[in-house]
Amino acid sequence: MTGTTYYGVSLLQGQDGRETRLIFNTRDEALETCKKFKGARFKCFSDRHEAELFTQQKQIVQETEIKEMPGEKLPYPTPSPQDMLLFRRSIETGNYDEFLKLIWKNPRFLISSGDTPTMIRERYRYHALLLATFKKELMICKAILNAVTEPSFMALLYTNDTEEVRKKRMQYLLETYLNTPDKFLNETPLHFAAKFGCTEIVELLISFPECDRDRKNSRGETAADIICTSMRTPCPETESLITSMLGERYFVPILRPTDYSSPAQIGKPWSPDTYVKSPASIVSSPLAHPADSQMVLQAFAGPMSPSEADVFYLQLKSPPVQPKYFPNRLSNKQLTPRKMLDSRLSDIEKGLERVGRSVARDLKVPWCEYWAFLDEFCDLTSVDGLEKLEIYLCERRENTNLHQPEVEVQRVTSPLSELCERLSQLRLQSPRPMEKDEEIFFTPPSTPPSPFYEILPFYILSSEPSKIDVDVLRVLENVDLDSAKFPNISTWKGNMQIFNEEYLNRLKTPATVGRNCSLKSSSPLPEQNRAQSPRMSSLTKRMNSPCRNSVPKVRLSERFENI
Questions:
Q1: How many angstroms separate the CA atoms of 241 and 1, rounded?
Q2: Is the four-CA dihedral 286, 291, 293, 295 of positive or negative sign?
Q3: What DSSP string describes 83-95?
Q4: pLDDT in tens, 279-333
Q5: Which residues is 265 bridged to in the sheet?
């Protein structure tokens, strides 16, 4: 036989329950009483006397002071559903100008209150980058990634952030945009770009080291497993190109001692996807003595496939002399196979790079080398490299004209010049020539005659050509330049082509005159704990690039240095 259960209700201190029943036989009746008195509690007993003692006890409310955490109020409101619909349509229709206008007017279109991507379609968990990739809008994808890695864009939302805090916000936001999957198949933007065959978007996404290439969807497939699977008519060329992009990236480096005490060395093919740090065997012959100079990276070819890296390494290691192996190189009269070997031995500073540049052009693989006057790695034959060189030469030209002394025009008189001066004094209103005593001012008397400035030639390092100018000229001698787009490069190239080949070969190499100080503080490959210089930033940018570098990228580490 089961005993009777009693439910006693205890009220709060100050609540009057003298006219209210506080002991019940059912739980529902006790709950109804607790709802009438806010804060009341009930408890079950097997003895009625214990239940009465519980009802006589008054509950004491302990007031606890709740301190609110200091939070920063965002200066922009959350977009309304109507605004989000307008924003979504700008992505779906590819309206680039409207998209930029909206995100810079209110950054909350891209960044939610939790520093996460703003969801545009909650049902599918689509953020802006997922939707833009789904619609194959390359310019919108680039604008999104540029915005979330732009310090000035983040400063619109968080005005009081320090540089370190802002960097962490940008890093976290970039990773979440690149790797946040959708709700249906748990696929990232890289999955979308791969299965829809968007080669340029794939190239853009994998150019960021934060992009997770090995992330799997709900079916256990990576982006490399679903290439062109959602295309109506898959293209074999597109599939092969994306496969090479998502495959392992290999580089062939060229290293040289900082003091040019020994010839340059060709490193073995190396992949950042295989090694966490630079492999110990990156140099074919390691330093034999601790007193030997440190080897620094001066140029590299890649990224490319493993088979392409092996072919490039063999041809660069022992380039054949027979012309039949280099049919494209016969058109270059400045660099025949025999001259390639001669320049490799005679030019200690850029000889091996000149050979590697020619081999990379024949094999159609990306090439990049370090230029001390720019203090970064770049390919001067590409549009990006030409723009950097144009900016540098523009500054050099302005500095040359700024420090140029004024030269007054020496007036030389002759019978012909006197006749021309007399003719210039004639007026159309009167055939009478001007008398010598008459004073006629063709310009205001307060305006003095402007001095004559001689347009001096300008060069890369000084007012005279150097070995650096010759090296750059060798790179650009077969490049067709647009004089309207690159006027300073065209002018500089014209100045250099005035000199004959014998004079250019006599120019001293900077290795004997003076070396760039940044070469002494560099390492063969960037380390994780080393503060990145502009040289290391450009190297990291190139190492993270895909196998076919045709879309300009913006790196997060590069932006941080300009904060």
A1: 81
A2: positive
A3: HHHHHHHHHHTT-
A4: 444 444 444 555 567 788 899 998 888 888 899 998 888 765 544 444 444 334 4
A5: 255
